[in-house]
Amino acid sequence: MIAFAGPCFAGAFEDAVAKFANDDFSDTEEAIGVIASSGNPLAYPIISALKDERLFADGDSKKVFIKQDDGKAIDAASGAAVDSLPDSASAVNLNNRLRRTVDAALGGLTLLSPDLATRLAAAQSVFKSHEEAVLPTVEGALAKETNKAAKTALGDARAAILLFKSDASEVDKLEAVATIKARGDQDALAMLSDVGADQPPAVTKAAAAAVASIQSTLAIWSTVQNAWYGLSLGSVLLLAAIGLAITFGVMGVINMAHGEMVMLGAYTTFVVQDVIRTRYGGLFDYSLLIAVPLAFLVSGAVGVLIERSIIRFLYGRPLETLLATWGLSLVLQQAVRTLFGPTNREVGNPSWMSGAFELGQMTITYNRLWILCFTLAVFVILLAMLRFTALGLQMRAVTQNRRMAASMGIATSRVDALTFGLGSGIAGIAGVALSQIDNVSPNLGQSYIIDSFMVVVFGGVGNLWGTLVGAFTLGIANKFLEPVAGAVLGKIAILVLIILFIQKRPRGLFALKGRAVEA
Fold it and tell me: What global pTM score does this model have?
């Protein structure tokens, strides 16, 4: 009995494969169905080759061949190697309907894969195609599945098939609508929106109600997603502006080269990764941890050098300081172009900063999440340093009353140099973080200098809490305005609002007495 069954099934499989040579879409569709349900080990290679346009058929001999990735070919019906493809062989053609059938067949063939990710991808493919022919395979896989996520995905795929299955009962269709509604994403919304008038009235009504419910839920999640994008942007602005808040607040220096300190930190990260790639490949995941202190030291040292050689001769002359630091920013940009070239440099993401995860109907990328955590950590450390260290106490004293601090024996010139170095060093570690989300180029700092000044002025010059509130406020406001007004008009609107706000509160949200105020 078994000996008879084997050849019988083999003959059916070979006949189905031969139909690809007929150059007829209906024959191709029938062949896909037979092959996908045959259980033959060649089924997946054939359907996969058909999708990738590697399945060739010879109309004269009715032979079908699979062209492999290495350029060699095998007989699709037997798996035997062939010397070369016949000259008369051509790729089997597909139309849009057949492509959906192929996707569904591939999904069905991989539903029982031992790999969880493969099963999830297959279930998603079947959900989108909802081909009836795959229903037995889906139900069989669902009965065997033990993983919760895969079981849910298979249940969604089964519901999608039943919803559009012509002979499914009304009860099954209503249960399918409820299942797809519970999924609640854009794919579910699109599928339920496709339910037409040919369905029973109760199913059509349930689908319409589900569409309205999903749209309402997605609108809420869209708001939450925009808020997250705003927090993410705010963390970037805070990281770029926090060093400027120190130098501008304590010293009253309008440092137009602050963005170049950020750039130096980003290039330090590039150099660290380049050395690790070429010599110590196993340390790549630690490259950012190594780059953070080095970027702080490099940018901080350059900041001290700038203060000692240029800035200290220009105190009390803000316009000259602005012009000098602007010229210095051009010098630093050109120096970096000379050393590293004008093109963008690649800075990779370590494995722990790569990828994303889903939270409800919103997507959170690991690099943005780590940057937010890193920014808050820097902010807390900086607050602790200002509150509990001798340098912090001296900086606060100089900020509040410079002459009194000098009369108490504080070396104000030393505090100035260390303060400028601290602000520049923090800008350097901001460059480490920004290298993970932006292009590392000589113009990197210019993208953030204006926004940094806006954050500092809006929050209150010299007040770190004001900088925190200002950064997150502007970040969230910008992300909510962008979908309405566009990126450019959104920034213009933010700038106008800040100008109007400064008219009412010239010292920002949190005013702080300092040298600039006394002057």
Answer: 0.70
